[in-house]
Amino acid sequence: MTAQDTLVLWNRPAAAGYYRMGLACSAGFDNARPGQFVMVRTGNDATPLLRRPFSLLGLIREADRVTGIEILFKVVGKGTRQLSRCRKGDRLSVIGPLGNAFLVPDTCRQLILVAGGVGVPPIRFLAQSLLERKGGLNRCVVFIGGRTREDLVCITEFDLPGFLLDVSTDDGSQGRQGVVTRSLEAALDAGPADLICACGPMGMLKAVSAIAAARSIPCQVSIEAMMACGMGACLGCAVGVNDDDSRYRHVCVDGPVFDAGRLRW
């Protein structure tokens, strides 16, 4: 896959330290799916930096045509700091869509989505895409957690028909006080689920995986990892798996979405 030159449509603060960026793309994203990601060049000739991976927050459509993508990022270093300074009309080199996606079977009726911090993008994209799916869900509960209310982004966009939103913060500044997995356990004690899909910090994903395994609930997790290439060339994003033929898989080409039961936590 080759890089394409994209046009910055907007770059707006989403919360303290978080930005939402819209990018106009010439082609290639018509069939992009929730969980896939892009590699964005954040530097220039004067300040060369490795590309950074960003999950797709959603697709930009005009009529029935996909004309662009939206990403969400948190300023944590030099690359994302440079991205935060981009303005409408700037151009960025993007490679994508890359990786695999969440797969919600048509038979799924009770779905749970879990997002922590900057893990919101693929979960938001998934929730939006489920509205277009033939054969609806009986119930979908979305759990979103953060350290403080400043880490809660895009939560109003989960106000969707048939969706229930449960918000937690570690300090209690918004929603329930405590980690998001505590609310998840309480919900599962009250009723069943056919599938759990989650994205967030590794500690949260490990806890979600253990909760799902204890209840024999299928669980898919989208793993966040630093990548140099995004296409399996550098082999820098290895994760341990329980597969018979290999001890490791790579987040960029074998993920970022994995069956939680395959991973060696």
What do these coordinates show?
By secondary structure, the chain is α/β, with parallel strands linked by helices. It has 2 domains: 4-98, Elongation Factor Tu (Ef-tu), domain 3; 110-224, Nucleotide-binding domain of ferredoxin-NADP reductase (FNR) module (Rossmann fold, 3-Layer(aba) Sandwich), CATH 3.40.50.80. The chain is built from 5 helices and 15 strands. It has helices at 78-84, 120-130, 180-190, 202-214, 251-254; strands at residues 4-15, 18-24, 37-40, 52-62, 65-74, 91-98, 110-116, 139-146, 163-169, 176-177, 195-199, 219-222, 238-240, 248-250, 257-259. The strands form 3 sheets. The protein has a 7-stranded mixed β-sheet with strand order 10-9-8-7-11-12-15, sandwiched between helices. Helix 4 links the parallel strand 11 (195-199) and strand 12 (219-222). The two termini are 31 Å apart.
